[in-house]
């Protein structure tokens, strides 16, 4: 694993050193949430659920919560302005991002979902582009908690949670172009830049450079 210091120098690390750095970061800045969920790919839906519950209970004035991975860049101030200027009905579930429609449920490989009994997923937000949910969504996740169906991934799980909610017909799915997973960091219209950025690519992005675009995911709308 690699990490960048404040001067954008690349360092290699092992798991113990990584954990020690995370503990140090939390001690100094109090900006990491530790959960009891498994540190595995299949544990990500549980982590998403736990994070939204914690945020809903502990950040009472927040109206939006953004989900991104640690291999992405967020223009935090501009994204906050964008979301706060959006039409947000506090009594309606809203999901903003790169929304995927009618994706086939996989039967093999990393994304196999044997416990979900449908051929197609309901709408879900593409995680590699990042997405935001409003407080209404976090409230619902908090109230349902352990009753929520856990899919193979956290993002398809979000789609299923909204589909199985009593308000599923009124969920506001906002397909927004400010979220991208094509590593486009020189265009300031993109406020969340993913995905799978390498250390050197982070440095290029910080300097406003251009990264060769990645190919699109196999998921289709």
Automatic annotation (TrEMBL):
Q: What is its EC number?
A: 2.4.1.-
Supply the enzyme class, top level. transferase
A GO cellular component term found in this entry reads: Golgi membrane
Q: Which domain of life is it from?
A: Eukaryota
- Topology in membrane: Single-pass type II membrane protein
Q: Where in the cell is it found?
A: Golgi apparatus membrane
- Report keywords, A-Z: Glycosyltransferase, Golgi apparatus, Membrane, Signal-anchor, Transferase, Transmembrane, Transmembrane helix
Q: Which family does it belong to?
A: Belongs to the glycosyltransferase 31 family.
Name under which the protein is recorded? Hexosyltransferase
